[in-house]
Write a structure and sequence with these properties.
It contains six helices and nine strands, in the order ββαβαβαβββαβαβα. By secondary structure, it is an alpha/beta fold. Strands 1-2-9-8-3-4-6-5-7 form a nine-stranded mixed sheet. A hairpin with a 2-residue loop joins strand 1 and strand 2 (12-16). It starts with 6 loop residues before the first strand and ends in a 34-residue tail after the last helix. The relative contact order is 0.18.
């Protein structure tokens, strides 16, 4: 690729920039799986860092079609793409996906530990579509379409997804040494999960502050814990244990 990586180590590469400019540098048909959490097109202004800054691209739908057209191009001939999306604008995402050639094959719900705000209901879940390029092999056995995972530790991004949920998706739909792409990498959860599971990954993120966060997370050594680590809320933001999943659970007292 012509662009220099912001971070690169042992098969994990992070690029700072617009995915519409960086994805065209990726070889066609070279990647095994796409997993991403793009802007939801809801003009979200998070309160997590008290800055109330809108997420880039969250009020402009013009990126949706070009970004997913590039994802289609870089994926192998029979591959899957899992994308979260904003339900108030589901028709924009579905139109772009289908126009590109993606075929919805499943729908996931991510259950959250805390309820959000709302007028007619209080949101406690997010949703994602599993999209097929041509005819990818089916996993055996097929996993549940409900993701249940503990919440994240100290927030690194206003829409950060739990590492456990992302790890489960990668484990269910990829094999060791597969290459995963996330064109909206955020704070790098997809890349951290890929690294922990022995996959390769390419991440792209337009906000440099998020790239800094991701590089910091990825620079921490990966440990295989034999016992459960302390709860996420007891870990500092960049404690390496924040990004580990316990391999075993201690018996209940």
């Amino acid at each position: 690729m012509a662009s220099a990586p912001y971070y690169q180590h042992r098969g994990i590469s992070l690029y700072h920039g617009d995915c519409r400019e960086i994805l065209p540098e990726v070889q066609s048909g070279s990647l095994d799986f796409a997993l991403t959490d793009p802007p939801y097109l809801v003009s979200y202004q998070g309160r997590w860092d008290h800055k109330r800054q809108e997420i880039l691209g969250d009020s402009d739908p013009t990126w949706v079609g070009p970004a997913f057209a590039e994802l289609w191009r870089v994926l192998k001939q029979n591959a899957l793409c899992l994308s979260f999306y904003g339900w108030p604008n589901a028709e924009i995402f579905l139109h772009a996906w289908k126009q590109t050639g993606f075929r919805p094959v499943s729908h996931f719900a991510l259950l959250k530990t805390r309820m959000g705000l709302g007028y007619f209901s209080r949101s406690q879940h997010e949703t994602a579509y599993l999209l097929a390029k041509n005819h990818p092999p089916k996993p055996a056995p097929a996993p549940s379409d409900v993701l249940v995972s503990a919440g994240v530790g100290p927030p690194l991004h206003p829409n950060e997804k739990p590492l456990g949920a992302i790890s489960r998706l990668i484990s269910d739909y990829t094999a060791v040494d597969d290459c995963i792409v996330d064109p909206f990498a955020g704070s790098g959860t997809t890349l951290v999960a890929a690294r922990n599971l022995g996959r390769r990954a390419i991440g792209i993120e337009i906000e440099e502050a998020c790239c800094e966060t991701t590089a910091m997370r990825l620079s921490q050594q990966h440990f295989e814990f034999q016992k459960s680590p302390p709860p996420p809320e007891q870990l500092s933001v960049f404690d390496p244990r924040r990004d580990q999943q316990p391999t075993t659970r201690p018996p209940k007292a």
